[in-house]
Q: What sequence folds into this?
């Protein structure tokens, strides 16, 4: 029976997941640790509207469990030593240097965690990989832990996270399935898996808790994300065909989605998928396949990324072409910066890449997102290193009022499907814009007919 859980990494995965475990297992102490002091301070903020991760419903879960059996701390060593079970939820960004640059996951942070666990532990531990990882990472963690020379025994489990941002709390409360991979060949391995099964069984029906060997679990996570991303790229590829054939991509999606073998989800055409997982996981899959010489497998999955990049570029090109082939000096309002609605996460957001292309064409961008602060938007653009920080600053203004973003603009581009955009006073926006007033709806979010009746030139994807 697990009494003390430690989670290393208080990010979008570790924070919400541990909050729900603590909420549902009041007898288990859960300590979430991070080296980022500001982040931990924000998790401990009295005012739960200031948590570092924005997720609908998360504030209530934290308010219920924090201080009771949920703790946030920067004392990593202490939490590791006291725990029976340690979740690793640190970031695994795509490598930006050396072999596998732009493809392989950078496992630096994972290895540092493993070494820290090895150094600090004085009692046996179950170590759980939570971060999305390339297949066979568990082996690397095991190698490090098993070679410490002290008598501590470790079991390594893979327990991939399937929560989607924006619906994380719902997904954690009622997951389609929980996947636990471990060493199925030994008594100790099976016992460790059982210990984690018992944690989840506090609220998840046992038949939805799946146990497999470690490699299947690791690969299933990559595969699930690759399949989901593939659906988005598939429908996006057809959106381009719809635009030239007068078919309507939403109608096509509805028609095929009613086939129960296909199903209706993940068929929403968009400016392109973003988020910390889809691209990274597919790149991992491609990299692993290539490293085993499976070039056809690698090429097959790489095409999902190629199509997604094309979709983002195509959206930017459409704006430029429609605005009479030049956006130089023209104000373009961006509604939305997050990679999807109901999150403040911007990792790999399509908005970043569309903005980058427009800035290279010397456009003046005015950005409004209900949850993303200016500092994050600057960071995202500077991270691309396409131009200097000063040049980005000169090209981008971030505002906290959507009407101000649109005032005097040649065009409005919808990059995120935030619900509030639908309810704006579009007549007021129209009155304040230069004419012709263009709207480029990258999410098929707005009522195009209504906008056209006001006088807008309304352009959307797949129609
Ligand atoms: C994804 C997986 O869904 C989740 O199971 C995994 O644990 C992490 O990766 P997430 O990236 O948070 O979750 O969000 P998701 O809802 O999958 O959306 C990813 C991207 O695809 C977003 O940019 C979204 O806007 C886009 N998308 C999604 C579409 O463009 N069309 C769709 O139909 C669905
Ligand atoms: P994810 O979406 O996977 O949760 P995030 O980047 O949101 O990724 O969160 C990962 C967190 O892990 C960050 O807050 C980072 O500071 C933390 N982290 C990385 N390495 C370590 C480490 N060695 N010890 C503690 N925390 C770490």
A:
């Amino acid at each position: 029976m697990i009494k003390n859980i430690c989670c290393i990494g208080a990010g979008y995965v570790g924070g919400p997941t541990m909050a729900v475990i603590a909420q549902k297992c009041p007898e288990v102490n859960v300590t979430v640790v991070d080296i980022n002091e500001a982040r931990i301070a924000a998790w401990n903020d009295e005012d739960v509207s200031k948590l570092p991760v924005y997720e609908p419903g998360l504030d209530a879960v934290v308010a219920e469990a924090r201080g009771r059996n949920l703790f946030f701390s920067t004392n990593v060593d202490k939490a590791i030593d006291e725990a029976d079970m340690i979740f690793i939820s640190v970031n695994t960004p795509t490598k930006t240097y050396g072999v596998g640059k732009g493809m392989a996951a950078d496992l630096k942070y994972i290895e540092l965690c493993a070494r820290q666990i090895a150094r600090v532990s004085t009692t046996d531990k179950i170590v759980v990989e939570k971060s999305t990882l390339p297949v066979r990472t568990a082996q690397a963690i095991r190698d490090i832990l098993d070679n410490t020379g002290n008598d501590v025994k470790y079991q390594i489990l893979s327990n991939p996270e399937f929560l989607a941002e924006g619906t994380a709390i719902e997904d954690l409360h009622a997951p389609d399935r929980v996947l636990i991979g471990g060493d199925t060949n030994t008594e100790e391995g099976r016992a460790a898996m059982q210990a984690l099964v018992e944690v989840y069984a506090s609220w998840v029906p046992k038949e939805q808790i799946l146990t497999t060997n470690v490699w299947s679990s690791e690969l299933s996570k990559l595969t699930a994300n690759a399949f989901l991303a593939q659906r988005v790229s598939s429908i996006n590829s057809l959106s381009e065909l719809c635009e030239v054939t007068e078919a309507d991509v939403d109608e096509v999606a509805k028609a095929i989605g009613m086939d129960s073998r296909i199903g209706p989800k993940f068929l929403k055409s968009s400016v392109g998928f973003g988020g910390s997982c889809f691209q990274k996981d597919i790149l991992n899959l491609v990299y692993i396949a290539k490293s085993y010489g499976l070039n056809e497998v690698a090429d097959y999955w790489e095409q999902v990324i190629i199509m997604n990049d094309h979709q983002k570029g195509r959206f930017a090109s459409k704006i430029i072409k429609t605005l009479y082939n030049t956006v130089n000096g023209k104000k373009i309002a961006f509604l939305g910066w997050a990679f999807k609605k109901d999150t403040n996460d911007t990792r790999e957001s399509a908005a970043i890449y569309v903005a980058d292309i427009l800035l290279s064409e010397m456009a003046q961008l005015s950005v409004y997102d209900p949850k993303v602060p200016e500092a994050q938007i600057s960071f995202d653009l500077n991270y691309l290193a396409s131009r200097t920080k000063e040049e980005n600053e000169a090209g981008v203004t971030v505002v906290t009022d959507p009407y101000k973003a649109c005032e005097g603009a040649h065009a409005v581009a919808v990059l995120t499907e935030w619900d509030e955009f639908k309810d704006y006073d579009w007549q007021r926006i129209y009155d304040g814009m230069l004419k012709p007033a263009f709207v480029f709806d990258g999410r098929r979010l707005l009522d195009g007919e209504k906008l056209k009746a006001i006088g807008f030139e309304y352009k959307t994807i797949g129609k």
Residues 8-14, 33-36, 39, 76, 89-91, 109, 112-113, 131, 276 surround adenosine-5'-diphosphate (ligand 2) (CB under 6 Å). The mean pLDDT is 96. The chain has two domains: 4-204, 306-460. The longest helix spans residues 214-245.
